[in-house]
Every structure is written in C-alpha cells, then in structure tokens.
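Dear support,

Our group has been running a series of protein-ligand predictions, and this particular one with beta-alanine is the one our PI (initials K.S.) wants archived with full inputs and outputs. We had some confusion internally about which version of the output was final, so please treat the block below as the authoritative record. The input we submitted was:
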Amino acid sequence: MTATLLRTAAELHARARTGRRAVVMTMGALHEGHATLIRAARKIAGPDGEVVVTVFVNPLQFGAGEDLDRYPRTLDADVELAGRSGADAVFAPSVDEVYPGGEPQVRISAGPMGERLEGAARPGHFDGMLTVVAKLLHLTRPDVALYGQKDAQQLALIRRMVRDLNFGIEIVGVPTVREEDGLALSSRNRYLSPAERRTALALSQALFAGRDRHAAQEALRARAREVPATRARAEALSAIGESRAAADAHAVATTAGGPAAIRAAARLVLDEAARLDPPLTLDYLALVDPSDFTDIGDDFTGEAVLAVAARVGATRLIDNIPLTFGNLGAAS
Ligand SMILES: Nc1ncnc2c1ncn2[C@@H]1O[C@H](COP(=O)(O)OP(=O)(O)OP(=O)(O)O)[C@@H](O)[C@H]1O
Ligand SMILES: CC(C)(CO)[C@@H](O)C(=O)[O-]
Ligand code: BAL
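Confirmed final output from the archive:
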C-alpha cells in the first residue's frame, strides 16, 4: 500500500472522506513503535475507513537548548513505512502551514498535571504539545486518534484535553513497543552510540526491577491471605528469581515495602548505571497515579505508572511501565 503525501491543509480537506478516519500523530523518523500505532489505526478504521499519519516536528513543544534543530527528519522513509503499515495518507505540513501567522498567541494550557515530571523538566512542553495536538485534530478531523503509552503523561493530558474541552474524539492508547532487550523504541534512540545504548538499557531494566518487586509484593499480599505470613513472604520473595535477588534483598532491607520498595528496586539499577562509562544521569523516577501524575500513597489501588527520565550523553530518554495495585487477579 502506498500512502499519499499531503503537504497542505487544503490538500487534506480536498480528500473525499470514506468511513471512519483514524489519525496517528508523529514527529517523523518513524520506527516499529509508530508502525504498531498505524496498524492499530488500520484495524480500527477498517478496510472502508481511512488512516492518516501526521508528521510534524512542532517547534512549540521544544524548549531553548533542546534538540529541535537536530531532530531526525526522514520524510521519504516515513511515507514508505506509513504506507507499508496501512496508512492511506501522510500529512506533513511545513511550520508556516501550521503556524501561518507565526507562533499562536492563544494556546492550550496543560494545567497542573502538565507541570509535573516531564512538564517540570521541560517547562512549556505540554502547552506546546497540546496546542499542536488540538490544531492537528481540527485539521484532520478524525473519529479516533491513537497515541503511544511510551509518552504516558502526554497521553493522559490528551485524554484530559479531549474530555475537558469536549473534542468528541475517541482517544486510544497503544502499549509501548520495545527492542528484544527491553529498550523502548524511540526516534531519539538513533542519537545513541553503541556504548550509550548499553547504558540506556538501564531505563527499562530499572522499570523491570520495579515491576518484579511489585509482582512480589502483590503475590505476598495474596499469599498472606491464604497461608501464615512468614511462609508467604519466603515464597513470594523466591518468585522474584535469582537474577534480581541481590537488588531485591537490598530493597527489602532498606525499605518498608509498598511504593517505596518499588522505587528503591528501580533506583538501585539507575544508581549502578550512574557509575557506568558513559554514565546515566537520572532526571526523575516516579511512581504516579496516571489521572494526575502525583505520587501514589501506600494505600493506592488501581493502575499506576512507574516512570523514568534520564540523560545518556546528549540524549534525553523517557520510559514507563504500568503497574496494577490491589487487583490480585490481574498480571502487573
Ligand atoms: N516505543 C513506542 N511504543 C508505542 N508508541 C510509541 C513508541 N514510541 C513512540 N510512540 C508513539 O508514537 C507517537 C509519536 O511519537 P514520536 O514521533 O514523538 O516518537 P518517539 O519515538 O516517541 O520520539 P522521541 O524519541 O522524540 O520521543 C506518540 O504517540 C508516541 O507515544
Ligand atoms: C503528539 C505529538 C505528535 C505532538 O507534536 C508529539 O508530541 C509526539 O510525537 O509524541
Ligand atoms: N515523544 C514526545 C515528543 C517530544 O519529546 O517532544
């Protein structure tokens, strides 16, 4: 399948609409994570519907000193990958096409959730992101739009904007696609040298260590209901597995359990990576409620997000993993 390249809003609006329109928004430099979103969009739109992929590196969401100028731009390959993955059209407007009068004076405000974690590290980022997402939703007029859970805070804010401002568009989240060794796919991975990539693996490893600790805690809680506490604890700890035993023993020894122990288990991996060459520099590690991105408390139940951001060399990467608390029937 070949995707049609559209450069202007006029070209986009001239397209005859057929069936449901599903939109996948990207900044280009497409990879298998994007391809997964496009395939999911194709499924939702169906054979009679339409899948539109947007490619736009939005200056409004980059801060001074960030990587706007060096962000990879690979439009020909993007159109090819989009078509191969099931897109009908790629809308890749210029900056002038999106912001004809220069930067917009009226913008979307992301509110308090937009000032936490990524928002604290990148002031103004989420206002710029939501402003362009609102514009692209108006320009593409989809029935449904799909976003990756890799950018969990972005996804949560888009859901919030669509609900709070009555956009009337269905928002679908797609789970994070990872390399075989666990690294989350990201356009920015192409900045990494082989040595930096080895260090960057610590982001996902830390999340997996936190996930293992969480699984052990949930197992412990479940077992505690069935068998005497001491036996349950031993069994649950053995479920963690030999590979994590040292990190886990440390976490058990230094924390009281609950969210603190999960953070501690993840933190240990990140602290080790800080001593590698090249080192990892941690920006934040947080275990948050995805409805507002505040830290969860000990009595939290439901779905939480363990999120991390770090620098390796000149590259800043983010990753996260969902963890379900108190739902003993579900896998974490
Ligand atoms: N590994 C992934 N798995 C699932 N979705 C992803 C993945 N990487 C990106 N996405 C999603 O693709 C959409 C476009 O993201 P974007 O173009 O910024 O890609 P990216 O790889 O996240 O780039 P960057 O490295 O700049 O963060 C977003 O909804 C994002 O969450
Ligand atoms: C949603 C988005 C396309 C807005 O520029 C961007 O933030 C991204 O690619 O995740
Ligand atoms: N993938 C999120 C877009 C950004 O980093 O600006």
